[in-house]
Amino acid sequence: MRLRDRIVVVTGGGQGMGMAYARRFLEEGAGVVIAEIDAERGANAVAELRGLGDVSLAQVDISDEGSTRECAARIVEERGRKLTDADGRNELIEASERLTPMGIAAFQPEDMTGTAVYFASDDARYVTGQLIVIDGGMVSPT
Ligand SMILES: NC(=O)c1ccc[n+]([C@@H]2O[C@H](COP(=O)([O-])OP(=O)(O)OC[C@H]3O[C@@H](n4cnc5c(N)ncnc54)[C@H](O)[C@@H]3O)[C@@H](O)[C@H]2O)c1
């Protein structure tokens, strides 16, 4: 439970990569806000993840600055705690058995979520502005 005091906003958390990040952050003890454009999809995700901990939905269109600002303000007001950006969208992976030196046939979202947990934790409290490539060794095979 490394992230007991954190609130993590997962954009696009209604399915796919984002939902995997939401699941992992809940397992680490964080509160999670699923910030999702599709309200029905987001509600379904919240229902599926509810048993894991403190998860809620915020409807937002992150391509719209006004919507994003309004959503962030609403979350801060409702949660009143530090927000940690856990946007899985910033991750870029092309994994295949042919291309990945580590021989990972096809990456799973769970291969990537641990790095986001690290950035959100106190273990990274002195770390700023870093970019970690999570690619099974494609860029740096040795
Ligand atoms: N799936 C992969 O293998 C993979 C691998 C690496 C990186 N990525 C990247 O991760 C991101 C998510 O991938 P995915 O496969 O989970 O996608 P997905 O389409 O399954 O899920 C995206 C989610 O984001 C929501 N969404 C879309 N536009 C939004 C908006 N404007 N505001 C708020 N929510 C919005 C969608 O409703 C959906 O729930 C993408 O940028 C993708 O390029 C995906």
Descriptive report:
With 142 residues, this protein is α/β, with parallel strands linked by helices. The chain has a single domain (7-124), classed as NAD(P)-binding Rossmann-like Domain (Rossmann fold), CATH 3.40.50. The protein has helices at residues 16-27, 39-49, 65-79, 110-120; strands spanning 7-11, 31-36, 55-59, 83-85. The chain has a 4-stranded parallel sheet, with helices on both faces. The longest helix has 15 residues, at 65-79. It is globular, with a radius of gyration of 16 Å.
How many domains comprise the coordinates? 1
User: So how many helices?
Assistant: 4
Gyration radius, to the nearest Å?
16 Å
What's the CATH H-level homologous superfamily?
A: NAD(P)-binding Rossmann-like Domain
Backbone structural class: alpha/beta
Q: Which sequence of strands runs across the widest sheet?
A: 3-2-1-4
User: Which fold does the CATH topology refer to?
Assistant: Rossmann fold
The distinct bound ligands, ions and cofactors come out as: nicotinamide-adenine-dinucleotide
Q: What order do the helices and strands follow? A: EHEHEHEH
**What low-confidence regions span 5 or more consecutive residues with pLDDT below 50?**
87-98
- Name of the CATH first level: Alpha Beta
